[in-house]
Specification:
Elements: H1 8-23, H2 33-40, H3 44-47, H4 54-67, H5 81-95, H6 100-114, H7 118-145, H8 154-174, H9 185-201
Helix pairs in contact: 1-2, 1-4, 1-6, 4-7, 5-9, 7-8, 8-9
């Protein structure tokens, strides 16, 4: 099979990119290395020069995804309630930014999570050490300086907040709930943030 010569890193990136395209419409169990090779315009033998197995391709995709960061800030840059709200808005805006590559990443991440792949655990640890850590730090700071409710259960509530938004996106975009129960993701994000700050202020009512 004739194919265009590429530098090694470019070829690897191309293989990962075409695999992502396949993941948009297919589960990992149905994707074959021959199909990936054809999508990349190379022979299966050439593909095996870069990846030993199909699983190694998926692992490389997830490793790149795990290294991807939603926008984070140093806690020292979040000095006011307005700063804090803007940080949360920017982070969630990145989460709900939907494009084909992100859909493919989410589909793959869900599938490897079900089989308890170590890379899924790495992604969870990254979230704990990144967004959740910053949230915990600033909320505890807010209890002392911004009149946040001292009874607010920080660890549980930030996980409920973050995972509720994530699962809303997954339901709408991955499980296709939007076909029968469509919702605007930006409106959902803003409602989630408003509800969080109501809880932080100690307000019980909407």
């Amino acid at each position: 099979m004739a194919h265009v010569r590429m530098k090694k890193e470019d070829r690897i990136s191309q293989i990962l990119a075409v695999t992502l395209e396949l993941l948009i419409t297919k589960p990992i169990a149905e994707i074959r290395t021959l199909e990936i090779a054809r999508a990349a315009g190379i022979s299966e033998g050439t593909l095996f020069k870069y990846f030993s197995t199909k699983d190694e391709i998926f692992e490389s995709i997830i490793a790149r995804y795990v290294s991807h960061q939603h926008p984070l800030r140093a806690v020292s840059e979040i000095q006011t309630v307005s700063d804090f709200r803007q940080f949360i808005d920017e982070y969630l805006s990145s989460m709900i930014s939907i494009h084909p590559e992100r859909i493919a990443y989410l589909r793959l991440l869900l599938q490897i999570s079900l089989i308890q792949h170590p890379l899924a655990k790495s992604k969870y640890a990254q979230t704990m050490q990144g967004f959740w850590r910053i949230m915990e730090d600033r909320i505890e700071y807010g209890k002392r300086h911004w009149s946040f409710d001292p009874a607010f259960n920080t660890k549980i509530q930030i996980r409920l907040f973050h995972l509720a938004v994530l699962m809303f996106v997954v339901e709408q975009e991955i499980f296709h709930a939007k076909e029968q129960d469509p919702h605007d993701l930006i409106e959902m994000k803003e409602e989630a943030i408003n509800n969080l700050f109501k809880l932080l202020s100690g307000s019980k009512n909407g």
